[in-house]
Batch of 4 targets.
Target 1
Amino acid sequence: MYFKVTHSSIYNWKGSGTKKEQKNPNLMDSFCHLIIAQEATTKCTWVLLIDQGDDTGIQTTNCVEYIIPRICKQFSLEIFNLRAFEIWPHHKDDPRLKYTEIVISDVNSDNAGDWVLRNSWRPADIQDAKILDQLIETVRDKVIREEI
């Protein structure tokens, strides 16, 4: 597989990431490192949400149902043609990164007009973990590899 990293930066949201919450200055600011990579042959897009450690607000796990659709809209991505992963450091005694795939099963809109996905999680397999390692290594200066 060959990938092209098309986006790599810190990604911000407020609250759980809904449209209404983005306008509320009283809600906690949250962020992660977002990497978007396009696979060359299948055109599948990989979205990596990388935890940046303590004091980064609400973890992606607690708001992924809102921020993945928001990311897709912002970057013109087809939600059913992507693979999304949450990534965070293990404990200090094991500095390897932990990879979890976000399995998207459905997308609907809620009463406020926000797109909300229904998802589950599963550990990334060995092959995917190797690819994720390579993608992260490509943009390593912005990624926290282990807890401080």
Target 2
Amino acid sequence: MVLALVLSAIVVAAAWLASARRPARHGLPSVADDTVAVETPAPPATPPLARDAKRPAASAAPEHLAADGIGFMPQHDGDPRPPGPLHPHPISAQHQRIFAENRIAFALDDATDAKDVAVMKDLLAQYRRDFPEDQWQLQDGYAVIIECLDHPGAESRRAAERWLDQNNGSTVKRSVLRNCIEPSQP
């Protein structure tokens, strides 16, 4: 009797885990669903068990692993999901570029907090060289801060005020205010 209860509990848990791994689709299909449907032909209609039986067991393992040895989520909803933790997507060259830009911006913030003008100048030169498009419009703000720290006075303050008037939404605004406009704290 106890063995029957344990076995039925295992079957129920296995069924629950199998259904929990497949995300439920509610509502209308997304634009991404339309794009996939247009770009890729529909697979032949085969029952799920027959389709899984045809695939070798090795195909369930992720093709690419992250540096930490963890795989990535399958590309399509119908693909089998390997067990264990998975990263949501592989890191692309575009992601690497974003990470590199963030590292320079964070280093500039740290150098600004330390008021290390020499390091700020080097980092700003690297930022301008590596990211000339300046998507976030940070480079001119850091240049204003460098000028204020390197040559404090009325002229650099006026330049900072002009920059603030023209770049009201910049994320560097607070740093420009702190380093160029607000009086120095002892």
Target 3
Amino acid sequence: MKKLAGLLVFVVALAAAIAVTKYYSTPTQPKQPQPPAPAAPTASNNVGVNVPVTFKTQLVTLDFANRKAHVTLSLERDPARPAPEKIWVWAYFFTPDAPGRYCAGEPVEVRQPFASGSHANLNVDSDLIDCAAPRATSLTYYARVNVSSESAFAARLGEPRISYDITQASPATVEGVQPKRH
């Protein structure tokens, strides 16, 4: 009986502690109203504004002989918003055969990408920097592409955002690889 009474006292004390904690952790002041969202920029003030652009990578080619990358993209923007005057395209490349390693070029600036409407197809060429040619012609490379209407810096992904998940990447066609001679 003493054990049952002790257990009952423990449960009551625990319930009281939880109730007191919930009471004091609840904010006593009402939440401040959120300011309204800024109005959509007009065509005259969209410089420097990050206009959302959606894209789909169509084709990626790595040319190791010429140290170039070629990316073909289809772009789309919201026709109700002003077109960005320029965008930056950045791609990085990796192979599952070298886990945790990637190579990339600099972000490429594209001016007036939507000059003919809210849809565009782009071909972007960039230099391959620190991309060693594979030693075997059978290696499979993948590309991850990022597009920003804000800046070249915003187009380049930081180390924590680099992903080696091939299910979210585009396979790259590899050119200019010489088979290793024995």
Target 4
Amino acid sequence: MKNCKIVIMTLDLTKKIIAWVGALSLLALIIIFGIFVPTLSYIKKTADESYKLRVFLEQKYEQSLRSRITRKKLGEIKSSAVNFYPFLFKSGDELKLITFLEILSAKHNIAQTINNSTLDKTGGNRTANISMSLGGSYANILKYLAELEASDYFIYINQMQLSPAFTRSGETTPTTNLNLTIELYVNQ
């Protein structure tokens, strides 16, 4: 009987130890899945958000650097642009430009006709257009164009069409016709 009591006590003690180990294991699982897993997922989420924030702040920093460089370059451009203002057509100087074109055509013995012009309508525009027809010798027209491009105005040639002149009988003459459309940059 004593032996049986010892076996029962040992069995009870074994069951108690197994019950305690099982309870502690269950408690450990509850702690792991109830506290550690949510905490780890929260830490991972925070790390991802921190990374995204770091990338965003780095991009903003690079933009601010580029902006500062751009502002510096803009200042340099503005200071150097002052040197170009004398070469820009100014509203109100229409007569000066037309006189220049007439003197240029007379100097090179060219007949000049201004067909269309937006010189008087430059309000708010950065450019003015002039469309003209020229007639004269080929060499004189080339000299006219060379001097026009070398003038003090910023001139952009939009369209240029050279063609030989013909008589009524269809024979060519030494005269060449030039249809020219130019664009001038306007200083407001």
